[in-house]
């Protein structure tokens, strides 16, 4: 049991440090939550966590199959980079709007819920770094004799960590004390987020094509 505890601590620490580092998903949550309100941020977080769960399960059941297939993995990287470029471009084009508006029809809300969940899910599932990251997480924490139920616990922990951390970020962004600041600078946040996503997408695309 002690060896499992050390493996879990290594995984939990590495995973949490990675969550602290702003990435593609962070800026998408920041943009949606600050621009369209808390509920959209939470739904985006759920989509991101679900996308991460796919890679977590793939790592658990054998993500090496994807890595060993160079064509599939290279295609995934290119698709991911193009999606990042698209999201970044759309964020740069967004004009300043009223924030935290609740005057929305229920039917439209359902459509928006699907939209924000899909944005979060695609952001996570089309980010090729997630596949490598979760494979690494399991590599540093699992031994040959680690029981499957322990591995499953690791997987559940990472999924819940992503979900609750992202929701925590949403609540920070939409807290009433910081709402005035968010109202004033939300459009700037989107522009900066868009520029960062364009940079990340371009970097991944260049790396995929050249290497």
TrEMBL record:
Keyword hit for Membrane: yes
Keyword Membrane on entry: yes
Transmembrane segments: 6-30, 42-66, 72-92, 113-134, 154-173
GO molecular function: amino acid transmembrane transporter activity
Topology within the bilayer: Multi-pass membrane protein
Subcellular location: Cell membrane
InterPro entries documented for this protein: LeuE-type (IPR001123)
Cellular component annotations (GO), alphabetically ordered: plasma membrane
Highest taxon listed in the record's lineage: Bacteria
Pfam families (UniProt xref): LysE
Secretion signal span: none
Keywords noted in UniProt: Cell membrane, Membrane, Transmembrane, Transmembrane helix
Identification of the protein by name: Lysine transporter LysE
Annotated source species: Candidatus Marinarcus aquaticus
Lineage start: Bacteria, Pseudomonadati, Campylobacterota, Epsilonproteobacteria, Campylobacterales
